[in-house]
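## retry 2 of 3
previous attempt timed out at serialization; input unchanged, resubmitting
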Amino acid sequence: MSNERTQSQYRQVANDLREAILRGDYPLGSAFPSEPELVKLIGENRALIGEKPVSRTTINRALLVLRAEGIIRVERGKRTLVRSVPTIPRDANTRYAQDNREQDGAPGAFANEISKLGFKPDSKVVEKGPTRPPADVAAALKLKADEDAFFRKRHMSAGETPVQIATSYVTLPIAEAAKLDDIETGRGGMYSRLADIGHAPVRFTETVSLRPPSTEEADFLRLSHEHHVLVIFHRAWTSDTDTVEVAIHVLPPHQWELQYSWPAEPPP
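## retry succeeded, writing output
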């Protein structure tokens, strides 16, 4: 069999398995058949239409494709599971609106997004306090080279599934005035606390990039060597020239759908 045909076959098997998962043949969080089980199952199905069975090598390569896409994952090197949480829509144009952030008492945009999917949102502060920020963050906040910022790093999950790491930075005076050192920022999250002290954001900008995860990111987000992460460099502005907060969101690409909209013509 030629390399081209081999490649075509394992990709076709991956496509068929992906379609089976998406139409619900294998529910979210359920066990996925093992390689020997798939060899038998697919072989029987192909025999019904007069085609030759596929090899275990082909099945293995097809499963690697689905693992790289995050549709399935291997748990502790033993069994394979279908992902537990559906794709999470992240609408950048509406998620930070006050009504969304505070809906039903939600402590921010993330909690509202996850609750709408029927999962319990969980956001744990794993690090916080004064720190020397990265250079791009310091520049955005107009800090001096030797000046610290206040930061909060959160590990965020939908139910039992980790889906995001978010690290926020503000200046030390702003953090103290808004009492951001508290573990819980209350209804509406940080932006509502900033509004309470007269620093409500009036617009947001985001830059999205892709890179391999750090060891810490891979461990928490349950990513393997074939995965990358989306990195969103998010800025909350209080005027055309002043940024009140920078947040760096690290997301598994397979877990999120980023949604944006804008007018065909820029405002005058």
